[in-house]
Amino acid sequence: MEKSQLRQVIIDQQESFRKVEELVYRDIDLERYLRGNEIVIISGIRRCGKSSLLKLIAGQLEGVKFYVDFDDIRLSDFEVKNFQDLQDLVIEFYREELDKSGTGQVYYFFDEIQNVPLWERWLNNLYKEGKKVFATGSNSQLLSSEISTFLTGRNKVLKLFPFSFRELLRLKGIEITGEKIESGMLTSSRKAEIFSYFLEYFEKGGFPLVLISGDLELSRGYFEDILNKDVLVRYNIKEVRALKDLVLFLLSNVGRAYSYPTLRKITGIKSLSTIKNYLDYFQNVFLLYQLPRFDYSLKKQKVSSSKIYTIDNSFLKTVAFNFSENKGQRLENLVFVELLRREKELYYHSEKKECDFVLREGMRIKEAIQVSVDLNSPETRKREIEGLIEAMTTYKLDSGLILTFEEDDILDAGGKKIILKPVWKWLLE
């Protein structure tokens, strides 16, 4: 790429990065990532707010801030030799500032760093020069492999998700604590307002621009970008139709367990290794996740069927088939993503009965959670409670949790405590 072309792109991008915007503060301890000279890698699905987080970070730093968005199509011809050009441009653009400060302090901000060759070596060089670097990426496998090879011990990884429910409320101008909710200090009108926003979150998910604009259809475009740019092109997929059929099937059946042989039969993809690779690709780009069945035997666990979930509920409305009224699976997906956000080690329980989520800490299962829209029908109530009790008994738990839309109660089941809690309250804990 010619330096003159690169220069113009960087001028445009610097101007855009400096624009003052009203940004929603994320529930992240930013101070942890500002301290020290480690490279900070922010990973997450496209459009979850990584670029905005870079701006939030930049706003807390004093010094020269140099920004490059490698997802800009004008940088598609960027080569290794252009790294030096970027260094030259820093000096050209900010010589006066650097001379005034006398410290030479430059903060580097790079969007979608995985798009450029040998990025990890360049970041390593900047680190050795004492520069502080913040970089985003949308592919966990690529980032982790390069980090483990070249940047071990020199980086901090921040996993970013679409907005949480608390962050959506912050967007709407509402700050609220779990303590205030539990103390019963909310007025009826405030509860109704929060619940209405929960319904919006349930339907539209957490992609920032979808919530800001109110345009749910944006998520369909995100899905197409992720599939085309991050999967089909990056992994050089030949069987395009088969891969698309698989991802659409899985999105239309979140919360259900499937083995590789079952998926082979359903999709017609002949190779089990191909199916495994496709599922890995979907997880690498943060689109779909596999939830394993818990077993104390690792061998049995590996051959058991896994459940599939997606990173954002919006995809279940705009991409999946026949999903408009399946509230149970959408609610379960919402809870899965929140547990993922809370960095829990997750499994599902399945023996004679089933429990949606069991949470492991160390060698023990510490929590069991069921998710149901409501417990109004006797069949549903019996199924959810019996599945939870089986999990509680199996893992020697004294209490368990059932998350529903609105029920708020505590049940005694043979000496075991079952807590019924509205999902919106749990999301704000």
Write the layout of secondary structure elements.
Layout: H1 3-18, H2 30-34, E1 39-43, H3 50-58, E2 64-69, H4 82-101, E3 106-111, H5 119-128, E4 132-137, H6 140-150, E5 155-159, H7 165-171, H8 178-182, H9 188-204, H10 208-213, H11 218-233, H12 240-251, E6 257-258, H13 260-267, H14 272-284, E7 288-291, H15 298-303, E8 306-310, H16 314-318, H17 327-341, E9 345-350, E10 354-361, E11 364-371, H18 378-394, E12 399-404, E13 409-413, E14 416-422, H19 423-427
Parallel strand pairs: 1-4, 1-5, 2-3, 3-4, 11-12, 12-14
Antiparallel strand pairs: 6-8, 7-8, 9-10, 10-11, 13-14
Short summary:
47% of the residues lie in helices and 18% in strands. It has helices spanning 3-18, 30-34, 50-58, 82-101, 119-128, 140-150, 165-171, 178-182, 188-204, 208-213, 218-233, 240-251, 260-267, 272-284, 298-303, 314-318, 327-341, 378-394, 423-427; strands at residues 39-43, 64-69, 106-111, 132-137, 155-159, 257-258, 288-291, 306-310, 345-350, 354-361, 364-371, 399-404, 409-413, 416-422. It comes from Methanosarcina barkeri str. Wiesmoor.
